[in-house]
Amino acid sequence: MDRTRFLALALLSAVAASLPAQTRPRFAPARLARIDRFMQQYVDSGQIAGAVGLVLEDGRAVYQHAVGWLDKESGRRMTPDALFRIASQTKALTTVAILSLVEQGSLAVGDPVSRYIPAFAHTTVATKSDTGLVIKAAARPITIRDLLTHTAGISYGTDGLIASLYAAQGLGPAAGWGWYTADKDEPICATIERLATLPFVAQPGERWVYGYNTDILGCVAERASGMPLDQLIRTRITGPLKMNDTYFFVPPSAKGRLATVYLSDSTNHAQRAPDGPRGQGNYVDGPRRSFAGGAGLISTAADYARFLEALRNGGALDGVRILAPHTVDLMTHNQSGTLFDSTGARGFGFGFQTTERYGANGMASVGTFSWGGAYGSGYSVDPVEHLVIVFMINQLPNRTDIAAKFPTLVYQALVGSRR
What we know:
Elements: H1 3-18, H2 29-44, E1 50-57, E2 60-71, E3 76-77, E4 84-85, H3 90-103, E5 124-129, E6 132-137, H4 144-149, H5 163-167, H6 188-195, H7 213-225, H8 229-238, E7 262-264, E8 270-272, E9 298-299, H9 301-312, E10 316-317, E11 320-321, H10 325-332, E12 346-348, E13 353-355, E14 369-372, E15 378-382, E16 387-392, H11 402-412
Antiparallel strand pairs: 1-2, 1-16, 2-3, 4-9, 5-6, 7-8, 10-11, 12-13, 13-14, 14-15, 15-16
Helix pairs in contact: 2-11, 3-7, 3-8
């Protein structure tokens, strides 16, 4: 063999060896088929009415399946483009909107919330004593960072100690499941200003408390940007990313794709949920005035996966950038110390749970960020495996374990390695 041909063959071998592992199939088809059967079992047993699962690898769909019913009573089958109430999955988009304002200098993570909502200048905290409820002044001002990490001490007002106070203001027990505002005929900032007058359940920075934090951020975003939250999110996120099926209230032309809400009854069977805030909601025929940054959006599996893929890519997708890579790093790294998990196995960044130890979140790699919604949906982004995993269902209360098991079924099908 002459030297030129030898060098050419050696170079070809080197290039082939350096090709990314994803050029070889990493998901076993027979194992992916297990997911279909797994999902169908929950429909056949009556535990759920329907669901959609979607998995992206490097932005390409390697698994997509719709199972069961969009509306069982009318005989309409679930479809991949079904619209779901995503509840707390809204928080990630509101967080991105806030951080986009940070990037342009309109606000800072360390700013006091009172700079944008003056009613937060003097907040209070409720504690219990031998004589009953005691309300004390907050030890320090609540900051934007406190809200981003859910360490402001603000709950959803359903705690027994404060529930009656919140109910009297149309919050807590009087707001559906606590977080629901789609039926309110007022802007979100009016609701949040009323919230500021109520006592919270912990001092700022004292512990991790899940609650109205991101709804407050939605009002902050409106004040800092000078536009309603729906317009801000559409302008900076859903519009640029071509997420054409994500909105706070369903357009009349799309209402036929909105998944019916079901609930798990006492026998763990899915039953149609009632109308109203604790059931079907007001996302079609409501006042359409309250843009709740913590739990208000409607979306599809494909739209939400597209949003997550942009974050997996460091804030950009298809030539459109919504955040800088360093900003995405802030979101997806633990910013809460051990307040979220005292063992340090999991953390909480800006809007996301983070996996700090392998095994702390199923088979997810260290560095995976994830969360879900009250209606039973869930998602995760695994940067190590280049995966986006989305599972959509609308069931509340949901006593099934299908959403928790879905990522495990995805990982068991992943038999190839990038390493």
